[in-house]
Design brief:
single chain, about 140 residues, 2 domains, about 0% strand
């Protein structure tokens, strides 16, 4: 009994340390500051260089839209998963009606803003995703 209790307490201490370490970066963010350092150009947005890097640093890293959890049935870990796995998430050349844009802007019937528990994407990142979709949502 004492051994089980000791293991349980040690586990909580370890988990607490891991959570504090994992959340530490978020604690240093200023209000409105994006959890990612990706900066999008005004045109010629690259999925591989800009969009996927942003998703890796925000959506997949948070274990929400990775290959294991894929919250809402959506994994943002590859071009195929982002564009084709869930119809309507990305509508090529139509960012206003793409669920992805609605979610990161927190508008429309898509529900709450994403990411939900961390600071939102900054305006440059939102505009960059909109531009990538408007430019045809290419796998570039």
């Amino acid at each position: 009994m004492k051994l089980r209790l000791g293991i349980l307490i040690a586990g909580f201490i370890l988990l607490g340390g891991l959570c504090q370490t994992g959340c530490k970066d978020e604690e240093t963010l200023l209000p409105g500051e994006s959890p990612s350092t990706v900066i999008f150009p005004e045109r010629n947005v690259s999925f591989g260089v800009h969009v996927q890097t942003l998703f890796n640093q925000t959506c997949a890293l948070a274990s929400c839209h990775d290959d294991g959890s894929h919250a809402g049935g959506l994994a943002l870990t590859s071009y195929y998963n982002t564009v084709f796995a869930v119809p309507g998430v990305v509508i090529s050349k139509d960012p206003a009606n793409s669920i992805l844009v609605m979610k990161i802007e927190g508008r429309g019937p898509a529900g709450d803003r994403m990411p939900p528990f961390t600071n939102p994407l900054n305006q440059n990142q939102i505009n960059g995703i909109r531009t990538w979709i408007a430019e045809g949502a290419l796998n570039n």
